[in-house]
Prior knowledge:
InterPro entries: FdhE-like_sf. It contains twelve helices and twelve strands. The chain is α+β, with helices and mostly antiparallel strands.
Amino acid sequence: xxxxxxxxxxxxxxxxxxxxxxxxxxxxxxxxxxxxxxxxxxxxxxxxxxxxxxxxxxxxxxxxxxxxxxxxxxxxxxxxxxxxxxxxxxxxxxxxxxxxxxxxxxxxxxxxxxxxxxxxxxxxxxxxxxxxxxxxxxxxxxxxxxxxxxxxxxxxxxxxxxxxxxxxxxxxxxxxxxxxxxxxxxxxxxxxxxxxxxxxxxxxxxxxxxxxxxxxxxxxxxxxxxxxxxxxxxxxxxxxxxxxxxxxxxxxxxxxxxxxxxxxxxxxxxxxxxxxxxxxxxxxxxxxxxxxxxxxxxxxxxxxxxxxxxxxxxxxxxxxxxxxxxxxxxxxxxxxxxxxxxxxxxxxxxxxxxxxxx
Length: 358
Ligand SMILES: [Zn+2]
Ligand SMILES: [Zn+2]
Ligand SMILES: [Zn+2]
Ligand SMILES: [Zn+2]
């Protein structure tokens, strides 16, 4: 067998295993919650490893060990942990996990470790129900992010499994039933908050009408689902097409109009905030309006707008920054600048050091 064929087969094997573990985890939830958590955790790790393998086989091997082709093909190797995988996805594959994704995966890992070491099957019925509810919340939000990565950011890696991924999605969503009690209990609180002016949408993770948003547009805020805890950076703008509906961006630079369905991406956000900002500047005193800036997170050119004082949003990757600076070497404005940008440059130039080297 050729060397290049083996990683491809192992890669497929890893993805199939990940999906298999997910399926098991869903089936085991009620009868064997302990195994459900363990298998769910294994599935997350395998998906991250598969993504790393699609880059290069050595990336799944623990940084503490020497990569060895023989050992790898025999499956005798120590593989990366969740944290190590996350670091490599960011640093090497340049396709990292966001804070929320990582946080939600870490919660599963933590729970898994507790289950392995401290779980006792004999518990009261009430404690058992609460445990299952806690697991469902955790799995729904971890899946929300995982599924989003597999069908979005990493779709080239996982496109062959699109069908299976959608089937798992449907099955996992049936678990939503376990959270019905939580939703029922929250109803009075939700009604109270509606009367205070909050708006509740259907949560994209747990499916209940418990996703709380303030009634405001053109500003960045954090939504929060009262049932499953999902929270995201959001911004609501008037539809640029029909001017009747609104487009709600949640965590990513894509949104659909609530009325005409028109698809919005980062360009509408960019245009809106740059126009508003420039108009505001002109009224004030003219001067130099530096926006849009370059994004130091995703390295996109001129995509960052000012949405409020000290709130700079990238309309491409949706990262929010509270500062920006001017590169000491190339004079371009960007977020995420290092202290000695004159010497080290920014994401867009190599600075003085790079100049000297040539
Ligand atoms: Zn929810
Ligand atoms: Zn519209
Ligand atoms: Zn960006
Ligand atoms: Zn620069």
